[in-house]
């Protein structure tokens, strides 16, 4: 029986919330982090990091990728094998593009492969959600595409026992190919913890109804590509009005994006990256306008037109006989 000696995992960045879909919807994007796990004889983990912002990543046992790797083996009640880890960063850190989700998914998928795949993809997903605390980033990072996540039904009759154990229902959201996501990534960070601290603990019934209606419209707008629906659907009352004050230049960039032809603009994840949705005709003008608006605010930003990644986490295995 062959033993897997190394695995390489590629995990896409994600953008979450998409305006009214707070903590429940996310899409994978064509930016990637790459991770390689190689069995070694050394007892202590060795981690090497390359790519932009590599110096910011811890290289000891506190590394999030390695923590997820260890958590997997604890979950299956096995001792994790000693490994050397190579990390190549392509997803900016602490910018609202799911960098932590790539680490959690990469660590779990890598561990599952090295262990001989004792867990199904569904079980890996459930473990990833438990580690991250919410599904909006880790689910599309693992599965690809745009995904809506909702808690499953508990305590069903015995004849549906297989569904009793399913914590989450995951729905693929169709994304019209004509919709182009444009990300504007500023040269400053914003922690998810800080972004959550500004949120109210309670919201009004009117705001809850507003977001429910606009999330429904968003799903139809993404599927059909209808600009009038998307312009209305990207509005939100649960998180963006509170978080935008943490992002210098938000209003100016928003006005610039819409003025250049974007359907609308939202905060990507917890921010500070801003996401505009537009079409192929206007994507270049939207990117230029967002860049110029932030320059006027004294902020440098990397602005890119991307696509939705449809593959999710991908792996390559290496075997020793």
**Overall tally of structural domains:** 2
Biggest sheet overview: 7 strands, mixed
Which CATH class of the largest domain? Alpha Beta
* Helix-strand string: EEEHEHHHEHEEHHHHHEEHEE
Mean of residue pLDDT values: 93
Number of strands: 11
Q: Radius of gyration over alpha carbons?
A: 20 Å
Kindly name the structural category: alpha+beta
What fraction, in percent, of the residue positions are helical? Answer: 25-40%
Annotation field: number of helices: 11
Instruction: Give the terminus-to-terminus CA distance.
Output: 7 Å
Which architecture of the largest domain does the CATH hierarchy give at level 2?
2-Layer Sandwich
Shape: globular
Strand content range: 25-35%
């Amino acid at each position: 029986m062959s033993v897997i000696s190394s695995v390489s995992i590629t995990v896409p960045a994600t953008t979450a919330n998409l305006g009214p879909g707070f903590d429940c919807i996310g899409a994978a994007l064509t930016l990637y982090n790459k991770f390689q796990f190689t069995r070694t004889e050394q007892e202590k983990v060795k981690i090497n990091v390359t790519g932009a912002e590599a110096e910011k990543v811890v290289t000891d046992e506190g590394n999030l990728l390695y923590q997820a790797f260890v958590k997997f083996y604890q979950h299956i009640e096995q001792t994790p094998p000693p490994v050397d880890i190579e990390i190549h960063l392509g997803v900016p850190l602490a910018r609202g593009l799911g960098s932590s989700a790539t680490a959690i998914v990469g660590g779990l998928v890598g561990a599952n492969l090295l262990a001989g795949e004792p867990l199904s993809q569904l079980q890996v997903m459930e473990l990833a959600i438990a580690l991250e605390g919410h599904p909006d980033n880790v689910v599309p990072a693992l599965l690809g595409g745009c995904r809506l996540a909702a808690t499953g039904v508990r305590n069903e009759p015995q004849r549906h026992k297989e569904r009793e154990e399913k914590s989450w229902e995951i729905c693929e959201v169709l994304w019209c190919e004509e919709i182009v996501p444009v990300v504007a990534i500023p040269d400053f960070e914003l922690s998810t913890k800080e972004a959550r601290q500004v949120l109210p603990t309670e919201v009004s019934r009117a705001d809850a109804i507003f977001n429910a209606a606009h999330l429904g419209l968003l799903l139809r707008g993404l599927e059909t590509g209808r600009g009038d629906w998307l312009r209305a659907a990207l509005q939100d009352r649960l998180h963006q009005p509170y978080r935008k004050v943490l992002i210098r230049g938000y209003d100016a960039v928003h006005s610039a994006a819409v003025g250049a032809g974007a359907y609308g603009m939202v905060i990507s994840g917890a921010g500070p990256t801003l996401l505009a949705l537009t079409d192929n005709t206007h994507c270049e003008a939207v990117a230029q306008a967002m860049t110029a608006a932030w320059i006027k605010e004294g902020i440098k930003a990397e602005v890119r037109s991307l696509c939705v990644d449809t593959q999710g986490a991908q792996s390559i295995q290496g075997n020793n006989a």
